[in-house]
Each structure stands twice: as C-alpha cells, then as structure tokens.
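Deliverable D5.2: sample structural annotation.
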Amino acid sequence: MFFRIIEKEALGDLLAGLQETFDEVAGPQKRGSDFVFDTLQSIDDLCLDYGSTILPPKKYFLAPDERLLRFNRRTGDVSDTEPTVISRALLGVHACDINALLLLDEIFLGNYIDPYYEAARKSTFIVGVSCMPEYGHICNAFGTDEVHRGFDLFLTDLEDRYFLSVLSVAGTELVEKYLTEAREITAEDLRDFQERTTRFKEAFPDPPVTDQLPLLYDAKYNDEALWEELGGHCLACGACSMVCPVCYCFDVRDTLDASGETGLRHRTWDACLFSEFAEVAHGHNFRPTRASRVRYRFYHKFVGNFARSGKMLCVGCGRCVRACKANITPSGVIAALQRKEKAGDIV
C-alpha cells in the first residue's frame, strides 16, 4: 500500500478514468431524503458525503433476483448456466460495507465457491470512502469502522483534499494513468489524517459491549419470556434482512414460460424472519413464532458464525435500525441480554 494526496477537483478525473476502464461505474446518489447505489452518469450525481444507502453494495455481488439457468422440460436441455460478467467499479463504499463483503467472501468463496458471486467479485473495482457516524451506527462495536483490505483505492476526506490509499495493482495503474496530479504526502497531510481519524473515533457514542456476547446469548437462548418481549412484536416483514449487508439467505425458484415447456431458474433474497422460511414437508415449522425467528436471526449473527469463524455477522451499519418498524435492533437485543446478566438472571 502507498499513499497520495489528491485535490477534490480530481474526483472528476477519477470518475472519467473509471468510466473509461469499466463497463459500469456505480456510486451513492441522493434519492429524496435517502441515498442509493446506482449507475453514475456524471460527477454531479455522486454524493460521497452520505450516512448510509438504503441497500448495501452487496446487491452487486448477490443480486436480489439473479438468473441461474434456462431449462427445457421437454428435452431436458439446460443452458445459460454461466454467470453474466460485466466489469464494474463501485465508487464511495464505506468501511463497514467493505468489511461486510469480506465476511461474505468467507461464505461464498470458502469451502464451496459460488461461481456467480465469485465472478462478480473478481470483476469489481472498489473505491472506499471515509464517513462520519450517524444515528444507529455501531460499527465500532464490531471493529468494522476501519478497513485495511478488500478495496483498490480508499479516499479519506481531509475537507479540502483527499488522503488516497492505494492498495492494489489495478488501483496503482489507475492512479498513474488518470490521477497524474496526485502528490506525495507531507507531514502536514499525515497530521491532518491522524486528526481526522481521531475525530471519527470520538464521534461514535459509547458502543454496546460485545465481549462474551456469544456466551451470554447461549445462556439466555431458552428464555422464552425474554424472546417474546424482544421479538413477539416483530412484523415478520423481513426488512432488516433485505437491507443487511451480511444477510445472505436466498431461495431458488423455477418459473415457467407461457408454453409450459421452458423456464428459468433464479435465486432471490430470502429472510429467516419470513413465516415459511423454516417450514418443511407436511407443514411442520421449526420456528413457528415471530419471537423464535427473531431469536434465531440474532443467534446466527452473534453466535453461529462466531463459532465457525470467530467473527460476528454484523458490521453495525445501522440499516436495520432504520428499516425496522418494530424497533428491534442489535443494540436493543444486546442491552436486554446484559440487563438479564446484571440482574443475576443467567441460567
């Protein structure tokens, strides 16, 4: 990794270079009072000073609705099984979302490689950007408020200029070709960078304590009264899962064309909070109540993946906090478990 300083006016050169190099360039853009990742046509559309997007950049790697193959029921032929690949650059990804992709890499590029996710990951260039915490952000509780890998370039806002971190060979080539005015960092730049990092860290409210959380969760897993209190009012809408950058459950469905002979197999996002998610043959449901599904959702995030890899499946981005109409939040669940501990009610 090496570092450079670029003026803010150079963002136009960066975007032009990305547009010349890649089939598509996407970045955060304002939509009403919210922000979304969408294709960038002009530098005027880019909003790097944003709190969070509605959907995470995960949507470019694990699409909400993704075609897997085409089939013919009469002949048994199967076609279009290869992933559709376009080269893409994502400009303006926050550290928590980059960390979320690194967690998804462990799922989809681990022992069993998902070729569709792999193809999208390999063909995507990532430019990260610094942020300041807003309502619901608890990424400091999970150590995802900073990132040191998983990107090609990273922009840290120093108000009148950007501190540019260059990590990859592709990033180096792009800087050398399109950011020719980038300069070496000075002692003043480094001081401003350190001061900005300190302000970022201090802007967070006190985070929920996650030490011993898996053990604490296991201890109260069978406390039905606690989970009814926490999850009984869940709407089972799945909004929290839809906006989560690390939720990865999906369903696979076949849809027939009008002829009834040919069709498509595709996968769509799914959510463990949906009533039919844990339903099996003959109608048995392993998690029939809303409270049981809320308990499972957070168990998977705080305990299940931690037992497998030592990492929790939450990056503290705050999207679920804003999406949940029942006010069921990671911080709220952690606080409830800790209240039980303080009351000496651990079984």
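Annotation notes: The chain has a mean pLDDT of 94. The CA atoms of residues 83 and 241 lie 24 Å apart.
The annotation will be released with the project's public dataset once the embargo ends.
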